[in-house]
């Protein structure tokens, strides 16, 4: 193939000609790779792989253990966070309990005031009952004295009334 034919082939390929011919520069990059490589000894490949593994394995193992440690630390942190969250929830319930206790104290004070008022009312009613009893006794005594006074007056009037003399 001459240089002119190659140029024509490239132009045809650029134009999208389906019957075009490919030149050496149009070849696939992987084409002929296996043929180009010299034969590699499998023992050498194995030794190279072992060397590569032995070189990176300690770092990978350290990374693995570090990741495991981080994972464990994250688990511990998550548990700690859950405990703290439950403590905060308890604190909120404690606030509710404090509100209930203050409300209970308020109602206790009301009950104490009502009890004191009831005791005061009881004392007043007791005094009023005693006074009413004394007044009733005094009134009965006065009525009795008036009745006795009337009887005395009637008796006196009887004695003062003229009596006819007996004829003998």
TrEMBL record:
<feature type="region of interest" description="Disordered">
    <location>
        <begin position="128"/>
        <end position="168"/>
    </location>
</feature>
<feature type="region of interest" description="Disordered">
    <location>
        <begin position="1"/>
        <end position="36"/>
    </location>
</feature>
<keyword id="KW-0963">Cytoplasm</keyword>
<feature type="compositionally biased region" description="Basic and acidic residues">
    <location>
        <begin position="1"/>
        <end position="11"/>
    </location>
</feature>
<dbReference type="GO" id="GO:0031083">
    <property type="term" value="C:BLOC-1 complex"/>
</dbReference>
<comment type="function">
    <text>Component of the BLOC-1 complex, a complex that is required for normal biogenesis of lysosome-related organelles (LRO), such as platelet dense granules and melanosomes. In concert with the AP-3 complex, the BLOC-1 complex is required to target membrane protein cargos into vesicles assembled at cell bodies for delivery into neurites and nerve terminals. The BLOC-1 complex, in association with SNARE proteins, is also proposed to be involved in neurite extension. May play a role in intracellular vesicle trafficking, particularly in the vesicle-docking and fusion process.</text>
</comment>
<dbReference type="InterPro" id="IPR017242">
    <property type="entry name" value="BLOC-1_pallidin"/>
</dbReference>
<comment type="similarity">
    <text>Belongs to the BLOC1S6 family.</text>
</comment>
<dbReference type="Pfam" id="PF14712">
    <property type="entry name" value="Snapin_Pallidin"/>
</dbReference>
<feature type="compositionally biased region" description="Basic and acidic residues">
    <location>
        <begin position="139"/>
        <end position="160"/>
    </location>
</feature>
<feature type="compositionally biased region" description="Basic residues">
    <location>
        <begin position="128"/>
        <end position="138"/>
    </location>
</feature>
<protein>
    <recommendedName>
        <fullName>Biogenesis of lysosome-related organelles complex 1 subunit 6</fullName>
    </recommendedName>
</protein>
<dbReference type="InterPro" id="IPR028119">
    <property type="entry name" value="Snapin/Pallidin/Snn1"/>
</dbReference>
<dbReference type="GO" id="GO:0030133">
    <property type="term" value="C:transport vesicle"/>
</dbReference>
């Amino acid at each position: 193939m001459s240089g002119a034919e190659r140029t024509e082939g490239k132009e045809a390929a650029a134009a999208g000609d389906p019957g075009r011919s490919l030149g050496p520069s149009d070849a696939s990059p992987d084409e002929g790779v296996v043929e180009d490589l010299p034969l590699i000894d499998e023992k050498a490949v194995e030794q190279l792989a072992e060397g590569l593994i032995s070189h990176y394995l300690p770092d990978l193992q350290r990374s693995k253990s570090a990741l495991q440690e981080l994972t464990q630390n994250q688990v511990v942190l998550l548990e700690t966070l859950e405990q703290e969250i439950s403590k905060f929830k308890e604190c909120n319930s404690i606030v509710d309990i404090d509100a209930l206790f203050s409300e209970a104290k308020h109602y206790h004070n009301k009950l104490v005031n009502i009890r004191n008022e009831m005791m005061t009312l009881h004392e007043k009613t007791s005094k009023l009952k005693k006074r009413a009893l004394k007044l009733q006794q005094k009134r009965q005594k006065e009525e009795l004295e008036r009745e006795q006074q009337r009887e005395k007056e009637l008796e006196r009037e009887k004695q003062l009334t003229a009596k006819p003399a007996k004829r003998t």
